[in-house]
Design a protein that fits this description.
Length: 222
């Protein structure tokens, strides 16, 4: 056998092997399962809901958990607030709703507002302060001056012990609690507010009552 013949046979063998491999790959590709990357990623519950996270509703046997990372000064969060309250009223006996802080650094009073809600929680008034922040957001939001006195006024309105409230407001532990929420949000992929997660999956639609309701109903039906 000549040298040229050997080379030709080698080339033919390589071509046949490549074609065979491509045919096998094609057949496997047709039957291969859908890549997991096509499904939305699920954020671990250990990040989204800590033992000390604020559960606004936590019914026994809940199949669905809705986590909201919010900025109390954010206008979009304020716009979403009535829809969230409506959902809580309708689904609070079946769905766990969790509120977590995610103050945006460019909002002058967002972090202070979160600390005020946290401080009110020390006296059992977290939810009333949370509601006041959104209901009266036009009075203090989107302003480049401190609204500490405004928040002290909210505390008076709720009948809180003011010295105790101020002590909690300025406690480094309170700030640490807010920062911890924000850190978890960043690790979960939160880039803006409001950001919702339903059973660990980031909600990608408009944060409206109807949009969230559709996802909650789908999860409840599983």
């Amino acid at each position: 056998m000549t040298k040229n013949t050997k080379v030709s046979l080698t080339v033919v063998a390589v071509v046949v092997a490549v074609v065979a491999a491509l045919l096998v790959f094609t057949d496997l590709g047709e039957d291969a399962p859908t890549a997991q990357g096509d499904a939305p990623p699920v954020v671990p519950a250990s990040i989204l809901v800590r033992p000390d996270s604020h559960r606004l509703s936590d019914p026994a046997g809940s199949k669905v958990t809705v986590v909201e990372f919010l900025d109390l000064e954010c206008e979009a969060c304020g716009a979403a607030f009535p829809g969230v309250e409506r959902l809580r009223a309708e689904y609070g006996d079946r769905v766990t709703f969790v509120m977590r802080y995610f103050p945006i650094p460019s909002h002058q009073n967002a972090e202070l507002a979160a600390r005020a809600v946290e401080a009110a929680g020390k006296q059992g008034k977290l939810e009333p302060m949370y509601r006041l922040m959104f209901e009266k957001q036009p009075e203090w939001g989107d302003q480049q001056v401190s609204h500490r006195e405004t928040f002290l006024g909210f505390a008076r309105e709720l009948g809180l012990d003011l010295p105790a409230f101020e002590t909690a407001l300025d406690d480094p532990v309170t700030l640490g609690r807010v920062v911890a929420d924000r850190t978890d949000g960043a690790n979960a992929g939160v880039e803006g507010t409001p950001t919702f997660f339903v059973n660990g999956v980031k909600f990608s639609g408009s944060p409206s009552y109807q949009g969230l309701k559709a996802v909650i109903d789908r999860e409840l039906a599983k």
